[in-house]
Design brief:
2 domains, single chain, five-stranded antiparallel sheet, 658 residues, Beta-galactosidase, Chain A, domain 5, alpha+beta, eight-stranded antiparallel sheet
C-alpha cells in the first residue's frame, strides 16, 4: 500500500493523550505559519544569520591519533572509500552505483523522485507514490558515505577524498534550502546530519580548504543554523518520544557544541542537554535495557547518547554523572546479551540505523559497538574481547574516562525488561561444546502507546549454537511499501511462540502502530549449576469472550533444551519453530533431526499436535528469514496444529549434545 488509509490516522489519534493532541494541534499551526520561511532551490536567499563574532572549530582530534588505527581497520576504511569514489555502495540492501553524482530525491527501488521544491509540510512523505521508499531516500542524506570519505582523507591526506566530500556537501546544501523537500520531513534525519557534519569538519580539520567549506561558506552556515532552528521548533513528543526524540536532542546538542557560532547556540545547547538527559532516562529501563525492546534500537539510542555526551564533554559542558552512569549501563547490557560470536538478539524492528560511520558497517555483530563502548566508558572485567576499530580509536582519542560501579559478573536476566539469556557453560568447567545461547522474551510489548517497533513475540525463544541460528527470530525485512510482508514479519506465527484460536497476541493498527500489546511476566528464573530454567506467561489472549493465558517453561540442562507450553483453557493452537537458514531438517511425524554445517541436533516435538514443514511459502507466508534490512531468504518453519490446554501441555525437546 502506497499511503496510509484514513482509518490508520483515526487509530493513531486514538492512541494519543489529550495533552499530545493539544501539542500536535499547536505544532500543525506552526507548520502552516512557517510556510512563508520556505526557500526554494535556486531562489536567492536574503538571509541574515545571527552569528557570533568569531567562528572557530575548537574540538579537533589530538595529533597523531591516526597512528593508533589498526592496519586492518585502516585498509578497510580505504577500500570502502575507494568504492564510494567509484560510485558504489550498498544502502539498506540496495546496491547503489550512482554515488559519483547522486540524486538526493530519487528512490532507487521504485525510481520515483519527489519534488525538491515542495513545501515540506505539504508533502506526504508516507505516500510511496509521491516520494518512493522514503527510507531509501533518507538514508543517503544521513551523509554516512561522506564521513567514510572524510575518514579516508584523515588517514591518507589524499585530497581526492576531501574534494568529493566538498562536492557532495555543496550540492546537498544547494539542493535542500530551508523547508523545501522531503529531507526536512523528519527530525531524526536532521539530527543525524548534524552529527555527520561535525565529524566531517573534525576529520578534515587539516585540509587546507576546510574553513572555506565550513566557517567561510554561507551555504554551510545557513544549513547548520537551519538544522538547529528546526530541531528547536519541532520536537517529537508524547507517543512519538522514542528513539526519534533522542536523535533530535543528540543532534542538537552535538551541533550546538561543535558549531557554537550563533547567538542562540548557548540556549540550544542547554535545552538539548536537558531534553536528552530527560528522554534517555524515560527511554531506558533501570537495568539499562532500552524500553522499545527492539535490540538494534538499543544500540542506536546508546550510540546517540554516547556521541552527544562526548561532544558535550569535549566542549566543556559535560552531562550529569547520572546520565553517564545510564549510558554505561546500556553498553554493559550490550556486552552481556551477545552470543559467543558477539551477535546480539534479533528482537523487534531493526533498520540498521547508524549514528557515526567511519569503518565499513558490520551489521552481523556488535563488535564495533562494544569497541566504541570500551573506548568511551571502559570494559567491565567480564566483557568479551572486541578488536579496536578506526571509529573506536578516533572517538577514544577525544575522551579519557572509565565509569565506576560496573556489575561484578555478567548478568543474564533483566527482570524489568523481561529479557533473559539462557546460556550453556563451556570450557574447562562446562560441557566443552560450542555455546548454546537462548534468548527468552517475557516483557512489555513495547514503548509508549503505539509501541512502534515491537513485534508479536511474547514468550518467543531464539536459540543459537556456536553463533548459528537454530531457532531463529525472523527479523524485520521492510518498513514501507510492502504491507503484507511488514505484517508477516511482525506477526505471532512468524515467531517461535504459540498462536491461539487464530488470533494475534497483540493487535496491529498499521505500520508502526499497535492497538493492544501483550505483556509478559517472568514467574521464575533460576540457575543451579549447569541447569538454567525460566518460567513465564503473557496476557495477550486474555481479551475477548474466551480469555486464555499462555504459559511457557524453558530449561537448558547439559546441552538439552526442553520447552513446555500450557494454556489455562483448551484452545486450538498453531505452534511455530522457525529454523535458521543454515539448518536443514528431516521430520518424521513429531520427531526429527536438525543439521547445519557445524553441528546437528535431535528434536522431539509435541506428539499431540500435527506437524508440517514450510519453506519460502507465499500462500500463506511462512518459512522466511530476513538476515538484514531489505533482504529475505527462505528458511524452514515447523508448524504444529492441534489442541492445547491445562491438562495437555506440549513439550518440545532439542538435544544439542549427545
Amino acid at each position: 500500500m502506497s499511503r496510509q488509509p484514513l482509518g490508520w490516522y483515526v487509530r493513531r489519534l486514538r492512541r494519543m493523550s489529550p495533552t499530545e493532541l493539544i501539542w500536535r494541534t499547536r505544532d500543525h499551526a506552526r507548520r502552516t505559519a512557517w510556510a512563508y520561511q520556505q526557500l526554494k532551490p535556486g531562489q536567492d536567499a536574503d538571509v541574515r544569520l545571527p552569528l557570533r563574532k568569531e567562528l572557530t572549530f575548537g574540538t579537533t582530534l589530538p595529533p597523531h591519533a591516526a597512528d593508533a588505527v589498526p592496519e586492518e581497520a585502516h585498509k578497510a576504511v580505504l577500500a570502502t572509500a575507494d568504492a564510494i569514489m567509484a560510485g558504489r555502495l550498498e544502502v539498506l540492501g540496495v546496491d547503489r552505483t550512482d554515488l559519483r553524482t547522486p540524486d538526493w530525491f530519487r528512490d532507487p527501488t521504485t525510481g520515483r523522485r519527489s519534488d525538491p521544491a515542495q513545501y515540506v509540510f505539504k508533502l506526504n512523505h508516507r505516500n510511496e507514490e509521491v516520494v518512493g521508499n522514503v527510507k531509501q531516500v533518507w538514508e543517503l542524506s544521513r551523509h554516512h558515505h561522506l564521513t567514510q570519505l572524510a575518514a579516508a582523507w584523515y588517514l591518507t591526506h589524499d585530497d581526492s577524498y576531501a574534494e568529493r566530500v566538498a562536492e557532495h556537501l555543496t550540492d546537498w546544501w544547494r539542493s535542500n534550502p530551508f523547508l523545501s523537500g522531503v529531507h526536512w520531513a523528519s527530525g531524526i534525519e536532521i539530527g543525524l546530519r548534524l552529527i555527520s557534519w561535525t565529524w566531517i569538519r573534525r576529520l578534515l580539520n587539516d585540509w587546507p580548504e576546510i574553513t572555506e567549506l565550513f566557517e567561510h561558506n554561507e551555504l554551510a552556515l545557513r544549513q547548520i543554523y537551519w538544522h538547529q532552528r528546526y530541531l528547536a521548533a519541532f520536537q517529537s513528543r508524547g507517543s512519538s518520544a522514542n528513539n526519534h526524540v533522542i536523535a533530535e536532542a543528540a543532534g542538537q546538542l552535538v551541533g550546538a557544541c561543535a558549531f557554537p557560532w550563533f547567538t542562540r547556540s548557548a540556549r540550544w545547547r542547554a535545552d538539548a542537554a536537558a531534553l536528552l538527559e530527560k528522554e534517555l532516562d524515560a527511554n531506558t529501563f533501570p537495568s539499562g535495557v532500552n524500553r522499545e525492546l527492539a535490540t538494534d534500537y538499543h544500540r542506536f539510542v546508546s550510540e546517540l547518547g554516547l556521541y552527544a555526551a562526548i561532544e558535550a564533554d569535549v566542549a566543556g559542558y559535560p552531562l550529569s554523572p547520572d546520565t553517564w552512569a545510564l549510558l554505561t549501563r546500556t553498553v554493559d547490557v550490550a556486552a552481556a546479551i551477545v552470543d559467543s560470536t558477539l551477535r546480539p538478539p534479533r528482537q523487534g524492528d531493526d533498520d540498521e540505523g547508524m549514528v557515526l560511520v567511519l569503518d565499513p558497517p558490520n551489521i552481523s555483530n556488535w563488535s564495533a559497538f562494544l569497541s566504541l563502548g570500551e573506548a568511551v566508558v571502559g570494559p567491565a572485567p567480564w566483557w568479551p574481547d572486541s578488536p579496536p576499530t578506526a571509529t573506536s580509536v578516533l572517538v577514544g582519542a577525544l575522551i579519557n574516562g572509565e565509569q565506576p560501579g560496573r556489575p561484578a559478573e555478567r548478568p543474564d536476566h533483566f527482570e524489568d525488561a523481561g529479557l533473559t539469556i539462557l546460556r550453556s557453560r563451556t570450557g574447562v568447567d562446562g560441557d566443552g561444546g560450542p555455546e548454546i545461547w537462548c534468548r527468552a522474551d517475557a516483557g512489555p510489548h513495547g514503548f509508549l502507546s503505539i509501541a512502534a517497533h515491537a513485534h508479536c513475540d511474547a514468550l518467543s525463544l531464539e536459540v543459537r549454537v556456536g553463533g548459528v541460528d537454530i531457532l531463529a527470530d525472523p527479523g524485520t525485512y521492510c518498513y514501507h511499501g510492502e504491507e503484507e510482508w511488514r505484517n508477516y514479519f511482525r506477526s505471532t506465527i512468524a515467531h517461535n511462540t504459540v498462536e491461539v484460536d487464530g488470533s494475534e497476541q497483540s493487535v496491529q493498527g498499521g505500520p508502526f502502530l499497535w492497538l493492544r500489546g501483550a505483556t509478559g511476566t517472568v514467574r521464575r528464573y533460576a540457575v543451579d549449576g549447569d541447569v538454567v530454567s525460566w518460567d513465564a506467561e503473557h496476557d495477550g489472549y486474555r481479551s475477548g469472550e474466551s480469555p486464555v493465558t499462555h504459559r511457557r517453561t524453558a530449561v537448558l540442562d547439559h546441552g538439552i533444551l526442553r520447552v513446555e507450553d500450557r494454556l489455562d483453557a483448551a484452545s486450538a493452537v498453531r505452534m511455530a519453530w522457525h529454523l535458521g537458514p543454515e539448518v536443514s531438517v528431516e521430520l518424521d511425524g513429531s520427531a526429527g533431526r536438525l543439521e547445519w554445517p557445524t553441528g546437528a541436533a535431535i528434536v522431539e516435538l509435541p506428539a499431540g499436535l500435527t506437524w508440517s514443514a514450510h519453506r519460502g511459502g507465499d500462500d500463506p507466508l511462512l518459512g522466511w528469514y530476513s538476515p538484514r534490512f531489505g533482504h529475505r531468504v527462505p528458511s524452514t518453519t515447523l508448524i504444529g496444529f492441534g489442541m492445547l490446554g491445562p491438562d495437555s501441555p506440549a513439550t518440545s525437546t532439542f538435544r544439542f549434545r549427545s
